[in-house]
Task: inverse folding
């Protein structure tokens, strides 16, 4: 990863209360020191709409958005840690 983009690339994890899969992904991200921003789709209608737009109309969580300012973006529905890290590397190119 290039240092400049790695510092600006972001991971947003869309979640909802009670989601065990979200909690598992958070734990893995924290254990690997991977920063992310959690967004509760039950409190943010725009976030829920984004999740539906990338998850075939469903509110499947966790949905992860990996993005860089003025750069590429990847959306992942119920991803593994490995998938998130691969997407981060792709966006960082």
Result:
């Amino acid at each position: 990863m290039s240092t400049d983009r790695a510092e600006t690339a972001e991971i947003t994890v869309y979640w909802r209360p009670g989601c065990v899969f979200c909690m598992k992904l958070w734990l893995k991200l924290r254990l690997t020191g991977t920063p992310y921003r959690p967004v509760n789709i039950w409190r943010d209608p725009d976030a829920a709409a984004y999740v539906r737009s990338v998850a075939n109309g469903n509110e499947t969580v966790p949905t992860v958005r990996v993005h860089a300012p003025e750069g590429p973006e990847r959306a992942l529905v119920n991803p593994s840690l490995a998938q998130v890290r691969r997407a981060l590397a792709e966006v960082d190119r």
Summary: The chain is about 40% helix and 20% strand. The chain has a mean pLDDT of 90.
